[in-house]
Specification:
mainly alpha
């Protein structure tokens, strides 16, 4: 059973290696650099901004907690804490 598993793994790897040799992995680039950049940019525009979504999901609970602080001293300390840890960038500050 172990021998058949090893033989199967070898056969599959040989098939994948053979397919890699037959199928071209790189597209030819003639004089289409301008068009390919436009196509690439249009595909990137379709993707959601994962970094923005992640940052918003990370910072939103802390900003919500900051809105519930009514003591001015504690609110100021909490705001400085958010700034010093980098959770809130200077353009996101709310006063």
């Amino acid at each position: 059973m172990a021998i058949s598993f090893v033989c199967g793994a070898i056969v599959c790897s040989l098939l994948l290696f053979g397919a890699k040799m037959v199928i071209p992995t790189r597209a030819e680039t003639d004089n289409l650099t301008g068009e390919s950049e436009n196509i690439t940019q249009s595909f990137l525009d379709l993707l959601p901004d994962i970094e923005k979504i992640y940052r918003e999901s990370l910072v939103a609970p802390f900003e919500k907690a900051e809105s519930k602080i009514y003591d001015e001293d504690i609110a100021e300390f909490y705001g400085e804490l958010l700034d010093s840890t980098g959770l809130r960038t200077p353009d996101e500050e709310t006063d």
